[in-house]
Specification:
With 214 residues, the protein is α+β, with helices and mostly antiparallel strands. The protein has nine helices and nine strands. The strands form three sheets. A four-stranded mixed beta sheet has the order 4-5-7-6. Helix 2 packs across helix 3, helix 5 runs antiparallel to helix 6 and helix 6 packs across helix 8. The termini are far apart. The chain folds into two domains: 54 residues, Orthogonal Bundle (Arc Repressor Mutant, subunit A); 140 residues, no CATH class. A hairpin with a 4-residue loop joins strand 8 and strand 9.
């Protein structure tokens, strides 16, 4: 069996390979599939990302986002990754950051880095579904991504700095409404920034005003 061709063929329908499914589909014992994929991993065609799960590098237009809800069913992209995707932050995280109601986990392979942070079920909401070529993934709404980031930063004992965030395209009513569902410490750090006009936009206006007074 030519496993390189098989992986390429499977890549037309999915970015994820499951050893049990391949064994059943091609009439091969599962241990043989695992051994074959292990050899192909050395060639860089696939990467093992979980028990019986491999990421298919031969799948066109695939990305780690295809794995988000494979590795954790109850999870969505949030925190730094969502803030960058929405243009709220200009920082480009090297890790795909997510929140989940399941246990925290950090996946690191040669080419894939996904960090899942645990939140309690009552904070698991405020996300939408986005399609990919092979399926879909969940991602926080922009307002929820900021609040998740604030909340988990405070949980880590870090004083959050919102000065570099761009609040211009956010729904402030939704942001304030969402904030009421978090511990009060989140609003304590958020409200002063909103009162001043909001993060990077406020800094830009302050600079423009100062230049205009010169």
């Amino acid at each position: 069996m030519d496993w390189a061709k098989t992986i390429h063929k499977e890549g037309q329908r999915s970015a994820v390979l499951r050893t049990n499914e391949l064994a059943q589909k091609y009439g091969v014992v599962q241990v043989a599939v695992t051994q074959a994929l292990s050899r192909q991993e050395h060639r860089g065609l696939v990467e093992r990302v979980g028990e019986k799960i491999y990421f298919n590098h031969l799948a066109p237009d695939s990305s780690p986002r295809d794995l988000v809800n494979v590795l954790r069913k109850d999870a969505y992209i949030s925190l730094e990754s969502a803030l960058r995707e929405y243009g709220i932050s200009t920082q480009s995280p090297r890790v795909l950051t997510c929140v989940t109601t399941e246990r925290s986990r950090e996946l690191r392979t040669k080419t894939i880095s996904i960090n899942y942070r645990n939140v309690s079920p009552h904070l698991y909401w405020g996300y939408i579904r986005k399609p990919t070529r092979y399926g879909s993934y969940l991602i926080a709404e922009p307002e929820k991504a900021i609040l998740d980031w604030l909340y988990l930063s405070l949980q880590d004992g870090i004083i959050p700095d919102l000065d570099e965030f761009d609040f211009s395209h956010l729904d402030r009513g939704k942001l304030l409404d969402f904030a009421q569902k978090f511990p009060s410490t989140v609003s304590t750090h958020l409200l002063p920034v909103l009162a001043m006009g909001g993060g990077r936009n406020n800094a830009a206006r302050s600079l423009a005003a100062a230049q205009g007074n010169q």
